């Protein structure tokens, strides 16, 4: 067996932002590329920026890095320890045949020293490099600081961000840098530079993570039933998907709603969801966005199946979620109905639990087998329990990550996979054990004063 085909150990260095999604994203990308991934349980701490993994090959690491938003950099791990001495001992045990090519006199290299949660001086960095065991690291090539062929990193970890760093590092790693992840896409898709946005446009980092969790790939067909300005679909299209969306809001989809940018008085005539795809040269992936109420439209024939459904349903923080409903008790007439009589229907409340039950029912019917649904679920942190998540006999829960919004509420990024064919008369419907939005809407829970105790709440 050649050195390059042996399973090898890699160090993944994660960004701190959105770190709560790191394992879910990594596992999804490994399964997207069919890569066997072994996580070293000892290093799995939700907040740790470092994770040691075994992968069958460097190609696998490169594939994962070609998609990940959360991993900053990947390194072939040559040595690790709780101290420099322990790291040197492990370095001595690393395969010499793996190291040898990088020591060649015909190549160039540089060694970087990085520290996490503590600043170390340039002088200390040089000292750390000089202390590295030269009987193991037998570099014969030339040092090239500007443009080396190979880069090695000595990494010192001093605890989570916000904790007081100890004098000595908690962990020390030495590895060969392989490549960086896709963090640069966050600024590429920056909302400040995006042509058409609204108040609820999803941040590009989270949108790309959702597309990764959904295992979107070249030529996937991806649907967002609550499409808004299409931010989630921009990410899916960037990953090669053909995209389609629906939204109940005619004014928003036609960019006739009030602008959300502070200094903008009127929407420009060329603002639209489609224009965003043009901005990123993704027009070829854009199928359409349609005005439709997710709770009742009959757009899709039974044979239509999506590879992924990714969505951020309305939670009603700014205003309650709505569905089309004439002559209902809670029917509302919008002042805009006079201006757009044929476009703005009468609306009624769309109860939050119903939104999620409808979403799961729809996904069970219209996902391909092994297709994924990725959506945000708002929860009250006090009464959240995993067993109360909406469920469906055709959908298996794959990942469930919390993003805290304030001390009382959070939203959970839920990933589900279709694992059973849907049968129309098979009693296959979505259910939720406890309807947590019965007594108080999510909006009420979101704005509830913090000093209330549990008892006062009841
Ligand atoms: C949180 S926003 C989605 C934002 C979107 N991800 C983006 O990046 O712009 C929720 C969207 O759901 C839409 N919506 C609310 N009720 C709906 C319904 N019954 N059917 C379809 N869309 C609905 C709202 O108009 C809003 O645009």
Automatic annotation (TrEMBL):
GO biological process: methylation; tRNA processing
Record function comment: Catalytic subunit of the TRMT11-TRM112 methyltransferase complex, that specifically mediates the S-adenosyl-L-methionine-dependent N(2)-methylation of guanosine nucleotide at position 10 (m2G10) in tRNAs. This is one of the major tRNA (guanine-N(2))-methyltransferases.
Family to which this protein belongs: Belongs to the class I-like SAM-binding methyltransferase superfamily. TRM11 methyltransferase family.
Gene3D superfamilies named in the record: Vaccinia Virus protein VP39
tRNA (guanine(10)-N(2))-methyltransferase TRMT11 N-terminal domain: residues covered: 9-183
Domain of life: Eukaryota
Catalytic activity: guanosine(10) in tRNA + S-adenosyl-L-methionine = N(2)-methylguanosine(10) in tRNA + S-adenosyl-L-homocysteine + H(+)
GO cellular component: cytoplasm; tRNA methyltransferase complex
Pfam families reported in the protein's UniProt record: Tmrp11_N, UPF0020
Designated name of the protein: tRNA (guanine(10)-N(2))-methyltransferase TRMT11
Species whose genome carries this gene: Potamilus streckersoni
Listed PANTHER family: RNA METHYLASE-RELATED, TRNA (GUANINE(10)-N2)-METHYLTRANSFERASE HOMOLOG
Subunit structure comment from the entry: Part of the heterodimeric TRMT11-TRM112 methyltransferase complex; this complex forms an active tRNA methyltransferase, where TRMT112 acts as an activator of the catalytic subunit TRMT11.
Keywords: Cytoplasm, Methyltransferase, RNA-binding, S-adenosyl-L-methionine, Transferase, tRNA processing, tRNA-binding
All copies of domain Ribosomal RNA large subunit methyltransferase K/L-like methyltransferase, residue ranges: 193-325
EC identifiers of the protein: 2.1.1.214
Molecular function via GO: tRNA (guanine(10)-N2)-methyltransferase activity; tRNA binding
Location(s), subcellular: Cytoplasm
């Amino acid at each position: 067996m050649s050195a390059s085909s042996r399973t090898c150990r890699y160090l993944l260095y994660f960004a701190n932002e959105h770190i709560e999604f790191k394992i879910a994203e990594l596992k999804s990308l490994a399964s997207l590329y069919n890569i066997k991934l072994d996580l070293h349980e000892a290093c799995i701490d939700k907040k740790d920026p470092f994770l040691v993994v075994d992968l069958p090959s460097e190609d696998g690491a490169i594939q994962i890095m070609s998609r990940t938003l959360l991993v900053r950099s990947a390194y072939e791990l040559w040595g690790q320890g709780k101290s420099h001495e322990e790291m040197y001992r492990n370095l001595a045990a690393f395969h010499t045949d793996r190291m040898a090519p990088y020591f060649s006199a015909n190549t160039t290299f540089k060694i970087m020293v990085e520290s996490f949660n503590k600043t170390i001086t340039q002088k200390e960095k040089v000292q750390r490099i000089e202390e590295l065991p030269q009987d193991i690291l037998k570099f014969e090539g030339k040092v090239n600081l500007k443009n080396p062929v190979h880069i090695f990193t000595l990494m010192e970890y001093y605890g989570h961000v916000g904790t007081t760093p100890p004098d000595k590092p908690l962990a020390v790693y030495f590895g060969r840098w392989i490549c960086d992840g896709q963090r640069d896409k966050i600024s590429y898709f920056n909302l400040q530079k995006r042509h058409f946005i609204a108040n609820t446009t999803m941040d590009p980092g989270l949108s790309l993570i959702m597309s990764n969790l959904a295992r979107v790939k070249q030529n996937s067909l991806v649907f967002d039933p609550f499409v808004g300005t299409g931010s989630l679909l921009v990410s899916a299209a960037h990953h090669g998907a053909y995209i389609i969306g629906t939204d109940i809001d005619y004014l928003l989809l036609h960019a006739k709603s009030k602008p959300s940018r502070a200094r903008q008085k009127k929407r420009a005539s060329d603002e639209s969801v489609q224009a965003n795809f043009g901005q990123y040269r993704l027009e070829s992936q854009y199928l359409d966005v349609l005005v439709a109420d997710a709770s009742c439209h009959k757009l899709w024939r039974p044979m239509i199946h999506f590879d992924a459904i990714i969505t951020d349903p309305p939670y009603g923080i700014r205003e309650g979620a709505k569905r089309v409903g004439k002559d209902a008790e809670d029917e509302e007439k919008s002042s805009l109905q006079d201006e757009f009589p044929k476009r703005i229907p009468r609306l009624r409340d769309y109860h939050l639990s119903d939104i999620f039950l409808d979403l799961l029912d729809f996904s069970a019917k219209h996902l391909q087998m092994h297709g994924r649904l990725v959506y945000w679920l708002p929860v009250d942190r006090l009464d959240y329990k995993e067993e109360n998540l909406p469920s469906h006999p055709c959908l298996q829960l794959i990942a469930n990550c919390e993003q805290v919004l304030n001390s009382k509420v959070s939203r959970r990024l839920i990933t589900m996979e279709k694992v059973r064919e849907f049968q129309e008369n098979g009693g296959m419907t979505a259910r939720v054990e406890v309807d947590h939005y019965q007594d108080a809407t999510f909006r009420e829970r979101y704005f509830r004063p913090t000093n209330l105790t549990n008892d006062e709440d009841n």
